[in-house]
Each structure stands twice: as structure tokens, then as C-alpha cells.
Prior knowledge:
The longest helix has 19 residues, at 184-202. The protein has 2 domains: 21-245, Alpha-Beta Barrel (TIM Barrel); 264-391, Lyase, Ornithine Decarboxylase, Chain A, domain 1 (Beta Barrel). The protein starts with 7 loop residues before the first helix and ends with a strand. It is elongated, with a radius of gyration of 24 Å. The strands form 4 sheets. The chain has an 8-stranded parallel beta barrel, surrounded by 5 helices. Helix 7 (115-128) links the parallel strand 5 and strand 6 (132-137). It is built from 14 helices and 20 strands. By secondary structure, it is of the alpha/beta class. It has helices spanning 8-11, 21-35, 46-50, 54-63, 74-82, 100-105, 115-128, 152-160, 184-202, 215-220, 242-251, 256-259, 364-370, 375-380; strands at residues 15-20, 40-44, 68-71, 89-91, 109-112, 132-137, 165-171, 209-213, 228-231, 264-269, 272-276, 281-282, 288-289, 294-299, 316-319, 322-325, 335-338, 350-357, 360-362, 388-391. It binds pyridoxal-5'-phosphate. The site of pyridoxal-5'-phosphate has 10 residues, from strand 9. Pyridoxal-5'-phosphate (PLP) is lined by residues 44, 92, 173, 214-215, 230-233, 240.
Amino acid sequence: MVASSESGNTRGWLTWVEISESAYVQNLKFFRKRIGTGVELAVVVKANAYGHGWQQIAHLAARHGADSFCVHSLDEALKLRSAGFQQDVLIMSHVPFARLEEAIRGKFRLVIFNQEDLVAVDAASRRLGIPVRIHLKLETGTYRQGIDADHLPGFLDALQQMSFVQLEGVYTHFANIEDTTNHDYAWLQLTRFQEMLQTIRERGVHPLKKHTACSAAILLFPETHFDMVRLGISQYGLWPSRETFVSYKIRFTENGEDVLQPVLTWKTRVVQIKDVPAESTIGYGRTYQTTRPTRIAVLPVGYSDGYDRRLSNQSYVLIRGKRAPVRGRICMNLTMVDVTDIPGVQLEDEVVLIGRQGNEQIRADDLAGMIGTIHYEVVTRINWDIPRIVVP
Length: 392
Ligand SMILES: *Cc1c(COP(=O)(O)O)cnc(C)c1O
């Protein structure tokens, strides 16, 4: 799985993603230092590890000090198990009732956010005779998943009648911690979380793992770390948002710029070079017209690969360390770029779609800005079938 970028491996590919082990390790070390040794470092590897490749990332995470995993679905959790990962896995979304026994046999941590689920999980674990650990999600103001304060006492009463269900954790998730530099709402949620914890303690229930922090909270507020953190986007070297970056710079003296190292580079190669006369149109819909004799390089990557069609005539790629603008519409599997001002471009030259080449860099965030979304979406949608390799 480890290969250098110009190894025989990549020679056979039209497009691929490289994951930098050294960048990943640096990020993980930074977060371990930030949270300390007593806090569980759970890495979020849902959605193919945010498009980075779940197997590659899970291997790196396990090898370099992550304690456990968080995923969205039972299927993601089962894949981790069948790839040999024995660490704890928290399944953060609903497990279909029909598959609860699979989840309990897998010894996963299950999130619960209502009493109906609790009853079903209890029944399934008693049928199997296997105990199950649950993490109760508390509603503190995100209004997505979570049990309301009003329903909490009833839930606890029911739980205390059950012998196979162990409340290992309680958690919540912030609604507005990365989208703003005003963190009042996050503090309100934290206060509600503390109040609900108090309700739980008053019943004599003492969950081992209290957790609230996603990347932005880990970066900005040690008060949110509790016993465990759920580190998503920033393990991959991406700031949750510009607002988080700015808040971080204001609160801490370290140079924020150097704290996180982007882990992912998305590459392709030139598959055709052609000279096009002035006043020719490029591609479908004839949306770009040349104004001079133009040299076009054709790249074997398009919107089906996750290179968004809205980048047509908008973005650029890196070839020989220089920017080559996209000309015309991005096709399903092909993209045309202008290399008129880049001397010496050759067939099969390596092209960077996201990442660094020479002194230039294209960040996932730059592409996200061009198409009105966030970098979370840009990296997650890099087609999951494209090979991912770990490079030093
Ligand atoms: C995805 C997710 C996270 C990770 O968030 P980041 O902003 O990527 O760090 C944490 N907690 C929950 C519940 C999530 O769904």
C-alpha cells in the first residue's frame, strides 16, 4: 500500500489519490498533544474517510495513535472489522432494527437517541445473550439526532430495568461551532449538555465517556474535550472553516498556518496535447472560445470522478508547477486545460487537481469556493473507486 508517487503503481492509472503519511502523522500528533493522553482520540472515518480512503486512513490512524473509530453506518463498521481492525467503533447513525443482531455481534458501540431504539436493542441483546454498549445522544440544540431533555427521565427509567444494555457514553454535537466566530450558541449547547448530564448523574448513572467535540471544538475549546473527542476533517489537515482558522489564530499564538498539513493530493495525467487555432471553441456547448493559437491538454478525469461540472471554465490544475486553466465544460470523464504558457508539456505528464506541485497549491477549499460548497463535500465526492495510495 505504501508507494512513492512515481512508482510503478501509479504508472498504470489515469487518476489516483495520494495520502501523505507524514502529513497525517503530524496532524494526529498535534491533536494528541492538544487533548492529552487521558482523552480518547476517536477518528471519524465515515464516508470513505471523507473521501481519503477508509482502509488507508484506518491503517494510518491505528498505527499512529488513534484510539477508536466513528462511522455513520453498520456497513462501514463491518468493513472495518473485516479488514482486521479490532478497535472500538461507534456507529453514529440508526442501525435498522432488522440488523441489530449483526451490530451487537460485532461488539460495536451503538448510538441511541430514542426509547424505541433502546427497547429494540435490549430485546436483540437478550435474544443473543450478548451485552451491548450504547452511547446516548442528547438534544442540545442541533435538532438533528438526540433525545430531548423532557424524554430523558423516562429513558433512564427504562434503561435501569435493562441488564444487557450498558450506557457507556453520552454525547452531543454542536450546530454552530465552525460556521461563525461567535460561539455563544455552542456555549448554550454546552450548558444544556451539562444540565442533562446532571439529570443522568442524579439517577445514579455514571457514563464513562462524555463527548461533544468535533474538529472545530477540539481546536478551539479544551472545555469541550471531556473523556473523548470525535476528530473528523482536521485529521486530514483541513481547517473546519475559515472562521475556525481565524478564531484559532486569535486565541492561540502559534502560527495557525503550520498547524495542519493537508493529507490528500489528487492527481491525473495528460492524455492528449493539441494545438487549436484562434477563435475555436472548446468542448460541449462551445462555452469557451480561444483568443489566440492555443495548446490544449486533455485530462482523463471529469464529473463522474468527482471533479465537479460547475468547475467548467472556473478552475485550474497544476502541470509542471504552473497553473493551467480549465477551458470549456468538464465532461463525464474528460477535462480540457490550457497549457499554451507552460513550455514542454508532454504526454503522461503528472497533473495535480488538488494539492501541491512546485510552489503552487490548489486547496480543496479553493475548489469549494468556486462551486459554492464546502471542502468537506469536495473531498468526500472524489469517486470512491479511484485508487488511494499512501506515500511517505
Ligand atoms: C461527522 C461528525 C463529526 C466530525 O466532525 P468534523 O467537523 O469533521 O470534525 C463529529 N461528530 C459527529 C456526530 C459527526 O457526525
